[in-house]
Amino acid sequence: MEGRQSSYSTEDIYNGRFHKRKSKEDDEQLQVILQEKKRMYKKKSFKGALFTIMIATLILITYNIFISQHENVLHVISWRRLANIWKPARGLHVTYVSHSQIDWLDVSTVVKKIVYNKQTIHTVGLLNFNETETFEWKTRMFPDSANHIVLHLDSINKNMTWESLYPNWIDEEQRYHVPECPSLPKLNVPEKMIDVIAIKLPCRNKANWSKDVARLHLQLASAGLATSAKWDYAVHMLFISNCTLIPNLFPCKELVTRQGNVWLYKPNLKVLKEKLQLPIGSCELALPFNPQDTGGDHTGDVRHEAYVTVLHSEDTYICGAITLGQSILMTGTTRDLVALVDETISEYHRNGLEQAGWKIRMIQRIRNPKAKKDKYNAWNYTKFRLWQLTDYVKIIFIDADLLILRNIDFLFQMPEISAIANNGTLFNSGVMGFLNEIFTWWHRLPKQVNFLKFFWSGDNKENKDKKTQLFGATPPILYALHYLGFKPWWCFRDYDCNWDSTVYQQYASDVAHNNWWKLHDSMPSQLQQFCLLSSKQKVKLERFRQRAATANLSDGHWKIEIRDPRKNI
């Protein structure tokens, strides 16, 4: 109030914008006014701050009383969660830290699914939660009936990368060293049997989020702890994760429920334990280099296992599929052969496939949204139809440009997903980009079960000769040969037409080419008619030969006289 008695505002006084006083008394009076105003401002500021603190305290006390009286309102942010913003998790490697928010109402909803199944929860294991979250678990989830155990997992070496688990090449033959995967620390098994294992997983919000070694480690370690129980013991695994889990480790059929970022699984412990016997990556072979060392034939449910191929868009692979089917049957398999075909495959060609032993399933093709126009791979997402064969427990997908040389039924004992390596950490799938994003945890098969007809530019003569011997070995050493480049049935049978192009010569092998034609000649004549050359293809082959002659290619295959009877049919 005193401040308003002056003709000068407080702002004017503090900024020195006032007239000079003509007398000493005026100056002294001004000093008194100034000091008085300062005291009043300090007093008001103190009162205002004190009032704010009192109001905030009253609100927080009321808030905590409300929380304690209303246990169902679990999703409201508590003081502890608020404090957690300022208190970083301790004892965790930086890549293990998860920043996912936990909605305790969602957790409570999911946990009730276990209780509704009349399972008593005695022990809960907590992995990768910080101190505040651990406190929430102990006070909110089974606070009276369950014992909560904090699980400690040593972190991996910080230099370990996804590439170290999935190298581009390993010494399968063990010529120089024995391939070995890095070891991952495991969880100590508590004395008490755990009913629920709760795990909080990190999820990086960027590309290749699924190729996170720490994330993989947490899932494998928790799975290992779960399988320490007896197979008939009901163990539930509850994950807090903004990203999906490893689908071939925790399949959808074992998902009990999901609420937000809370996932509850009840795994088949026997099956899960078998999966954990596999290498942690492609750094080791999932099968011995000589697969016959696996200890005999697989004795699974033969009636619900099948070899499957996919044909769509055009009929250029019909001959290959027919030959493939015959080669599989010649190995003595008792599994079904299933061909998924779309409406572009004519009834005439479908009949040929059935004569060759394939069971026909009609499908609608699926377009790859990123494929270039008029390319064959524009519809390669059609292979996702494989997962709709739910009447089979397990299938082995085989491209139509393979030739099976030895029985490969033992592959049915392998888990999803098993494949040969193709490029770096990627496996050969035919829909590589998509499947490699989903199934990042895959297992390396020996290259003999899908040996590529291909010569590296760096291959010396010794390596090339060795591959050539494998292509034509009698009895066969390889289990399956994958014909890359131009397919044998697209060429004249006289030689491998990959020789007629400098770009495709890396796929050229007359020995492998002749091996395919030997099997073709063993087929019934009514099946061989599906491998005739079209007029358009004959013209194309002659054009390639002329270009090779003009370029005077050193291999000289263009000089060979064509005696293939299909030339005149």
What are the defining features of this structure?
single chain; 569 residues; alpha/beta; Rossmann fold; Spore Coat Polysaccharide Biosynthesis Protein SpsA, Chain A; 4 domains; six-stranded mixed beta sheet; four-stranded parallel beta sheet; 32% helix; disordered N terminus; membrane; EC 2.4.1.-; manganese
Write the layout of secondary structure elements.
Elements: H1 10-15, H2 24-69, H3 79-84, H4 104-116, E1 123-127, H5 131-140, E2 147-151, H6 162-165, E3 196-200, H7 213-226, E4 236-240, E5 255-259, E6 262-265, H8 269-276, E7 305-311, H9 318-330, E8 336-341, H10 347-355, E9 359-362, E10 394-397, E11 402-404, E12 418-419, E13 421-423, E14 426-427, H11 432-438, E15 443-444, E16 451-452, H12 461-472, E17 480-482, H13 510-521, H14 525-528, H15 535-551
Parallel strand pairs: 1-2, 1-3, 3-4, 7-8, 7-10, 8-9, 12-15, 16-17
Antiparallel strand pairs: 4-6, 5-6, 11-17, 13-14
Helix pairs in contact: 7-8, 12-13
GO molecular function: glycosyltransferase activity
Keywords: Glycosyltransferase, Manganese, Membrane, Transferase, Transmembrane, Transmembrane helix
Protein name: Hexosyltransferase
